[in-house]
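Dear colleague,

Thank you for sharing your sequence with our group. We've completed the structure prediction you requested, and as agreed, I am returning the results in plain text so they can be pasted directly into your records. Please verify that the sequence below matches your submission; if there's any discrepancy, let me know and we will rerun it promptly.
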Amino acid sequence: MNAKALFGAGLGLKRDLMPQLQAGVPACIDFFEIAPENWIEVGGRSAKQLAWFAERYPLAAHGLSLSLGGPDPLNEVFLQRVKSFLDQHRIPLYTEHLSYCSADGYLYDLLPIPFTEEAVKHVVARIRRTQDILERRIAVENASYYVRAPITEMDELAFIRAVLSEADCDLHLDVNNIYVNSINFGFDPLAMLRGLPGERIVYIHTAGHLREAEHLAIDTHGAPVLDPVWDLLDETYRLFGVAPTLLERDMNIPPLTELAAEIEHIARLQRHHAVRGRVAA
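Please find the predicted structure tokens below.
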């Protein structure tokens, strides 16, 4: 069964929004994203709703609990369930966070991995095993974080590049996370963006955040996207070309019309850079 290819601009599929979306999906929405953990083996009305969307739109799967950097053994039983779920719903892309969320049990938070050579080897082995089980490439997402790991041998950019290269996996780029980390740790977000291996970017997130203080931003996914993050997305397309891009909104969810306005902003940027690319070619 062939998967539907991802393209364009998308939105996270929230149960509260499903009735509105089934009544009429805004034209700017090309695909939806789901967290497999929230949908695997569900039944009844929820399963029928998911099937309705899977029949009509491409889906992306963005995992929450694989804990690629964690010390606990990789949950291979869960990965087998993920594989069946992806196959069942013809989902072409599975991504996970470059972070960890378990240590003798789940911690219900995404914590930073130490930027060390040992951590690179640990994460790479787990990504390679994940890809073997799923029988497909995955993409890993650059994570937001608020404290530095106690041991650091390289910066975040060098760590990401090493993991991507040695695991031979793809990059799920979150432009909001770059901006949030740049505030919290005082680096140039454009320099970080420009240093990424653009050929590995297959998927993009953008989102809103909360500016708590001059040097503290919190990745809430609970507010509109701010201008500096839109600028980073624009520069991403300019540097690397257009990739499927999702608006993340996980709390304080506004009416669908407000979400659609932000998704249309993504679509306008994509159209602009697609035209520029054709002219350049």
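Summary note from our side: DSSP finds nine helices and twelve strands in the chain.

Kind regards,
the structure core
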